[in-house]
Amino acid sequence: MAKEKTTFTCTECGGTSPRWLGKCPSCGAWNTLIEQVAEAGPGKNRLSTPQGYAGLAHAQAVMPLAAIEAQDVARTPSGIDELDRVLGGGIVEGGVVLIGGDPGIGKSTLLLQAMDALQRAGLPTLYVTGEESGAQVALRSRRLGIEGSQVQLLAEIQLEKILATVDATQPAVVVIDSIQTTYSDHLTSAPGSVAQVRECAAHLTRMAKGTGIAVILVGHVTKEGALAGPRVLEHMVDTVLYFEGDTHSQFRLVRAIKNRFGAVNEIGVFAMTEKGLKGVSNPSAIFLSQHSEPVPGSCVMVTLEGTRPMLVEIQALVDSGGPSPRRLSVGLDKDRLAMLLAVLHRHAGVACMDQDVFVNAVGGVRISEPAADLAVMLSITSSLRGKALPRGFLSFGEVGLAGEVRPAPRGQERLKEAAKLGFSVAVVPKANAPKKPIEGLTIHAVERVEEAMNVVRELG
Ligand code: TYD
Ligand code: MG
Questions:
Q1: Smaller CB count within 10 Å for the chain: N or C?
Q2: Which residue's alpha carbon is nearest to atom 14 within ligand 1?
Q3: Long-range Cβ contact pairs of 83-86 (< 8 A, separation 24 or more)
Q4: Is there a binding annotation on residue 107?
Q5: Rounded distance from Cα 108 to ligand 2 centre (Å)
Q6: In CATH, what number is assigned to the domain containing residue 273?
Q7: Do 307 and 436 fall within a single domain?
Q8: 415 and 441 both lie in a single domain
Q9: How close is the Cα of 57 to the center of ligand 2, in Å?
Q10: Number of independent structural domains in the chain
């Protein structure tokens, strides 16, 4: 078969070049040209001549929105509750899911478990492995205790062969593990390059939409934390799931960051065990480290991930630094940390200018909601002063640049969960203070950062 002609297109300005160049000839951006299959036929620049719009293509019939029948999407639960929760109920016909995460975090394990459950429920499945041999996957299935599995396996990395096999076997769900190892014959660039990843994902998406076969793509994460190359994939697919958690700890979170068929920001919680991933249905206390005595630099917050509140310990270490002190955060936004330090200085008179400041959300969890602000500030002050917060203490609330403390959504639920787990003192935004007292919990409502600091000093 003759190779299809390819061109190189700039991801910034859309300019093209017949060869790969380091610098885009049109806009001058560096390293932005990626390979694409060239559009066949004439009229590459057909839109450049306004008088040429008509006549090149036939006008299509349009329809008012109201006349289009909306159908509820049919979902098939995978049988793994925590996965179904993030998917918004289950696998959708013709839906494309991208699941990303660090190597070794459990993507292949989870998908093999899910495929086996679906196969047992009577849905034909196909697992395409490009990273491991069939024997390796079989070994994993043995470990998972599903050795009698009827999941169909294909060890293949060439897209055209994969598509032909899918066509011939007609499964209901296909897993591509991983999209980075898949390559198309039509492009000369190496597997894993942005061009290949994009081309393969586009073909698979088209196949899914055309046939109603659900496709699950596994994607790796680069050092920068983006799905390698596949930032470009995020808009192509229907659902983007992201594995997080510390590979050294037992717990894993699966977070939905985009879902055309369900709520985002829902999370699934799993524990990696000897026999694969097990769902954790009550995850509220897994991100607390167990101190026998309260220690300086630790403050517990309640974060609301999706529909379930979870208690997470925020740790800070403030230590005298050199001429250019370091600010480091793990699991929390770094820019936000700089902002909080400035607010702390200006509005509460707590200066960390000459100190190294490290903050960490325990257990490898990532917290993106600003409700962590108050807990971050309190743990920093606690570490700076070398004074632990009281036993059973927790705090949450967003802090603004003017030093005001803003409410967090659904404060009551957060407080109730904390009370259930035996927490006894809370510093929260005024608007989150409950009207009726919560049993066992003393609540201090504050409007400003300095107030929060004063409350803590008095408690101490
Ligand atoms: P894996 O699913 O291969 O990760 P990924 O596909 O995301 O790269 O997970 C591999 C890790 O999980 C590996 O370090 C071993 C561990 N593991 C268990 O602890 N228990 C198990 O039952 C299995 C199958 C794996
Ligand atoms: Mg894998």
A1: N
A2: 104
A3: 83/110, 83/114, 83/254, 83/268, 83/279, 85/266, 85/267, 85/268, 85/306, 86/241, 86/254, 86/255, 86/256, 86/259, 86/262, 86/266, 86/267, 86/268
A4: yes
A5: 4
A6: 3.40.50.300
A7: yes
A8: yes
A9: 45
A10: 3
Residue 226 has pLDDT above 70, yes or no: no
**Type of residue at 118:** L
Average pLDDT, the chain: 88
Co-location of 100 and 244 in the same domain: yes
Instruction: Verify that 276 and 142 share a domain, yes or no.
Output: yes
Answer yes or no: do 11 and 157 share one domain: no
Which atom in ligand 1 lies closest to the alpha carbon of residue 143? 22
Residue-number span of the structural domain to which 340 is assigned: 285-459
Which residue is closest in CA terms to ligand 1's atom 10?
104
Residue 47 lies in a domain: no
Least confidently predicted of 70-79, 339-348, 419-428: 70-79
Instruction: State phi, psi for 193 to the nearest 5 degrees.
Output: -75, 160
Of all atoms in ligand 1, which is nearest to the CA of residue 247?
14
**What is d(CA 319, CA 297) in angstroms, rounded to the nearest whole number?**
11
Q: Are residues 275 and 314 in the same domain?
A: no
Residue 275 marked as a ligand binder: no
Residue 50 lies in a domain: no
Q: Residue 221 C-alpha to ligand 2 middle, in angstroms?
A: 12
- Six-digit token string for 5: 């002609």
Nearest CA to ligand 1 atom 22: 276
* Distance from C-alpha of 353 to C-alpha of 212, rounded to nearest angstrom: 58
What are the tens digits of pLDDT across the range 161-172?
A: 999 999 999 999
Q: Is residue 433 part of a domain?
A: yes
Q: What is the pLDDT of residues 238-277, one digit of tens each?
A: 999 988 887 788 889 998 989 998 877 788 999 999 999 9
**Residue 11 Cα, ligand 1 centroid: separation in angstroms?**
35
Domain match, 266 and 290 both: no
94: annotated binding-site residue?
A: no
Last residue within a domain, chosen from 281, 304, 333: 281
Q: Please say which residue of 265, 281, 297 terminates a domain.
A: 281
d(CA 357, CA 347): 18
Q: Which two tokens stand for residue 452?
A: 């929060």
Ligand closest to Cα of 129 equals 2
Pocket of ligand 1 (CB under 6 A): 101, 103-109, 140, 143-144, 272, 274-276
Q: What is the pLDDT of residue 47?
A: 47
90 and 222 co-located in one domain: yes
d(CA 35, CA 45): 18
State which ligand 1 atom lies nearest to the alpha carbon of 101.
Answer: 7
